[in-house]
């Protein structure tokens, strides 16, 4: 950059109206578009974080997070003693991006997509974390949400696949039931009744292409544009974005020591259509919803004629005592108001893409029609092999083995963090789950820490990335289940280099 600086950047209007999108992200996107379109010229001086925070009536840390992202990606650069400036040379991979707002009197470029309102909304959501998790050939510590693929009994699975192919029923080559392969639905119902104390029959089970498709069906069938949906804050980004993309009005509800804060939700919006919760092991804080809160939530749903979506994403992995009974099975009311969502992606392997939902009896027809109109059904052969895996006891044995293995790997992470990261990252054990939170010292930015970790080849997602408001304390999400003790120790050493 030259020593001769241009004048201050022109005044930029930032609209903070995108439901379900963190405020810092909206500010980042607006400034990024302004830079790429030339509205913020190269080498022009950016407003100070304090001034922009005052202009937008947001916290200064929100602006700092947005600037940190722009700085990390090369759109702006800081000059000691002078301030922050738009970069003279923009990142090469972004040179072809143009301003989204095309004047009405100009025809769109030949290859420019013309999207529907829903399409534009879908395209606006950040899916880079989803894309990376599905394309990385080798996962890096501490990538969350990945099971111990190295410990899966692929020899057993291969034998079951081979046997099915040799003895294949002609019916498995035809069109399947939108609800799923009936023997698998029976197996899943039996498993959930025993392991999760669920109240269900096979006629209520839908086999879907992972939990995300189950949630998409729920949004499609039950949510209209403008409906209020209560979401945990912090919470799962895929779930939040999915309902926001369906046009829902997202109401962020904080998590306290007892889990989902129903009293706060009622103060914010009493007419919610639906609430999404992870009561057995809240993502990402790990809180367990108290019995009093569970009963209160069920009572509210019955009185409000609203729906509860229970995402039981990693309930199998509890290391002290038996897994908690699910919310869906608590009482008779639950069968009418709760839709239960589970997945085999975290218990078997992600590429299987099979999950399940329990649907109240009075919604079965509607969900069947919706599934038939989307992808009809999941692959029948995969469902048949999974049925054999469950019925012959392999699934139960695998879960028991993984509980012991994951407990060991969690302990390895806690010990390594205490040895290498003392004073920089506080990592405490948890009785359940597939990840731990590393808490940063007061005042530290988890966005900055996450970026520094990435520079060392470490994936440590920031807690604030899952929050629609600034968390009371910032931290890093550290997945441990996919990594051996040696990989965990190596990852902690590299994380220490990034943070210390």
Can you offer a commentary on this structure?
With 500 residues, the protein is of the alpha/beta class. The protein folds into 3 domains: 1-101, Orthogonal Bundle (Arc Repressor Mutant, subunit A), CATH 1.10.10; 131-150 and 402-499, Aspartate Aminotransferase, domain 1, CATH 3.90.1150.10; 153-395, Aspartate Aminotransferase, domain 2. The protein contains 17 helices and 14 strands. The strands form 3 sheets. Strands 3-10-9-8-7-4-5-6 form an 8-stranded mixed β-sheet, with helices on both faces. A hairpin with a 2-residue loop joins strand 5 (249-256) and strand 6 (259-260). Helix 1 packs across helix 3, helix 7 (182-195) crosses helix 14 and helix 16 (446-455) packs across helix 17. The longest helix is centred in the last third of the chain and has 27 residues, at 394-420. Mean pLDDT is 87; it is low at 92-109 and 130-137.
Shape: globular
* Arithmetic mean of pLDDT: 87
Count of runs of 4 or more consecutive helical residues: 17
The total count of strands amounts to: 14
| CATH architectural grouping of the largest domain | 3-Layer(aba) Sandwich
Low-confidence stretches: 92-109, 130-137
Strand order of the largest sheet: 3-10-9-8-7-4-5-6
Helix proportion range: 40-55%
Q: What is the class of the largest domain in the CATH system?
A: Alpha Beta
The multimeric state of the shown protein is single chain
